Structures are given as C-alpha cells and as structure tokens.
C-alpha cells in the first residue's frame, strides 16, 4: 500500500467520526508515519516486539490551563507499518485505522483507556 493510499484511509476515518468532535480539535496535526521515531520509541520505552499503532503527543484538553499559546501544536501520528502487519485484508485494515484514529483523538480529549473501553462496550 502506498503512503498516499494509507493517508486516504486515515482521512476517510477522520471524515466518518463525529463532526462535533472533529470540529472541536484545535491546533492538532494528524500525521502518518511508517514507524515510530527512535525518540518516540525511547520515550515510550517500547520493546522491540511491541507495535505502536498510533500516538497522541501533546496536552490533553482536560489538562489545559489556557496559557498554552506559543507551544507547538499537538500531534496525532498513525503508524502505517504496524497497522499493515496486524491486518489480514483491506476491510480489517480500515477498521483498525479508524479505531486508532478515534483512540488517539480520545486521548486529545483527555479520555483514559478505561473510559474508552467503557464507551466501546456501549456501542
């Protein structure tokens, strides 16, 4: 899969999420990368056998003080190679991309993994 095709999957996933939540994203760059950088892996203490599908880097909205001006934008990175590695077909890949995008946006809004799991059980 080309980078352009993967980026289109990420855009499609964003377009299918709640318009209210997408509109509420402020100063967030959503990026696509093949793999985590060495620095990202080091900060997260990833072992060689661990796959990282996505990553939110920034200050969650629930922890903002209002004095964040001048800071770099928050970033959400979706990692292509790990998602391809765990997906058996195009439908499964898209489903995982969409869930990863949702998961990282949820971190931006300050949701914990427990809160995300509870929301997913409701659906």
Give keywords.
123 residues; alpha+beta; Zincin-like; three-stranded mixed sheet; 6 helices; 13% strand
Structure overview:
- By secondary structure, the chain is of the alpha+beta class.
- It is globular and about 45 Å long.
- It has a three-stranded mixed sheet with strand order 1-3-2.
- The protein has a single domain (3-58, 72-118), classed as Zincin-like (2-Layer Sandwich).
- The chain contains six helices and three strands.
- The mean pLDDT is 90.
Write the layout of secondary structure elements.
Elements: H1 3-15, H2 19-23, E1 28-33, H3 38-44, E2 54-57, E3 74-79, H4 80-85, H5 90-108, H6 113-122
Parallel strand pairs: 1-3
Antiparallel strand pairs: 2-3
Helix pairs in contact: 1-5
- Helix fraction? 40-55%
Shape summary = globular
Q: Give the class-level CATH name.
A: Alpha Beta
Strand arrangement, major sheet: 1-3-2
Number of strands: 3
What is the number of domains? 1
In N-to-C order, the SSE pattern is HHEHEEHHH
| Rg over C-alpha atoms, rounded to the nearest angstrom | 15 Å
User: According to CATH, what is the topology?
Assistant: Zincin-like
Tell me about the largest β-sheet.
Answer: 3 strands, mixed
Mean pLDDT level: 90
The helix-and-strand class reads alpha+beta
Q: Count of helices?
A: 6
| Poorly predicted regions | none
**What's the CATH architecture name?**
2-Layer Sandwich
Instruction: Report the β-strand fraction as a percent range.
Output: 5-15%
């Amino acid at each position: 899969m080309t980078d352009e095709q993967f980026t289109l999957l990420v855009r499609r996933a964003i377009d299918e999420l709640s318009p209210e939540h997408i509109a509420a994203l402020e100063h967030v760059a959503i990026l696509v990368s093949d793999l985590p950088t060495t620095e990202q892996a080091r900060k997260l203490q990833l072992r060689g056998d661990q796959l990282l599908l996505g990553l939110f880097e920034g200050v969650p909205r629930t922890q903002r003080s209002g004095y964040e001006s001048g800071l770099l934008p928050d970033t959400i990175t979706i990692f292509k190679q790990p998602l391809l590695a765990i997906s058996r077909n195009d439908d499964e890949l898209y489903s995982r991309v969409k869930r990863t995008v949702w998961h990282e946006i949820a971190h931006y809004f300050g949701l914990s993994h427990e809160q995300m799991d509870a929301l997913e059980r409701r659906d």
